[in-house]
């Protein structure tokens, strides 16, 4: 199965106890939503609001590009991608 790297910063790191998680994708057509679904529940509860959307001011980026400038939670992810998950918006390079 293909895998992606998830980088956790700030309190998400503190919850999980490590900065990097390797997440196995459910298939070739996986999305950011699928990746978030595999994160620990305590992270998901803080990242997503009651409607399942990213809670402001949290931010998710795929390969350095914020998902709100892509296809949001429906942004496709591929083997080897890096997903940054932050409780606050960051400048990503």
Question: How would you characterize this protein structure?
Answer:
This protein is an alpha+beta fold and 93 residues long. Helix content is 20%, strand content 24%. The chain has helices at residues 11-16, 32-37, 41-47, and strands spanning 3-8, 20-24, 59-62, 65-66, 82-86. The longest helix is centred in the middle third of the chain and has 7 residues, at 41-47.
CATH topology: Ubiquitin-like (UB roll)
Strand content: 15-25%
Q: Determine the structural class based on helices, strands and strand pairing.
A: alpha+beta
Unreliable parts: none
What can be said about the biggest beta sheet?
Answer: 5 strands, mixed
The helical percent reads: 10-25%
Query: CATH homologous superfamily?
Result: Beta-grasp domain
What's the Cα radius of gyration? 12 Å
Second rung of CATH, namely the architecture? Roll
Quaternary:
single chain
Mean pLDDT: 93
Care to count the β-strands? 5
Q: What spatial order of strands do you see in the largest sheet? A: 2-1-5-3-4
User: Number of helical runs?
Assistant: 3
Span of the ends, CA to CA: 28 Å
Count of spatially separate domains = 1
Q: What string, H for helix and E for strand, traces the elements in order? A: EHEHHEEE
Shape: globular
The CATH class: Alpha Beta
Features of this protein?
93 residues, alpha+beta
Task: Provide a quick synopsis of the model.
The protein has helices at residues 11-16, 32-37, 41-47; strands at 3-8, 20-24, 59-62, 65-66, 82-86.
List the helices and strands and how they pair.
Layout: E1 3-8, H1 11-16, E2 20-24, H2 32-37, H3 41-47, E3 59-62, E4 65-66, E5 82-86
Parallel strand pairs: 1-5
Antiparallel strand pairs: 1-2, 3-4, 3-5
């Amino acid at each position: 199965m293909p895998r992606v790297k998830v980088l956790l910063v700030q309190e998400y790191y503190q919850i999980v106890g490590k900065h990097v998680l390797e997440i196995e994708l459910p298939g070739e057509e996986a999305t950011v939503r699928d990746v978030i679904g595999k994160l620990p529940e305590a992270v998901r509860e803080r990242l997503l609001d009651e409607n399942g959307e990213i809670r402001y001011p949290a931010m998710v980026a795929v390969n350095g590009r914020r998902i709100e400038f892509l296809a949001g939670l429906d942004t496709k992810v591929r083997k080897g991608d890096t997903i940054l998950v932050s409780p606050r918006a960051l400048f990503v390079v």
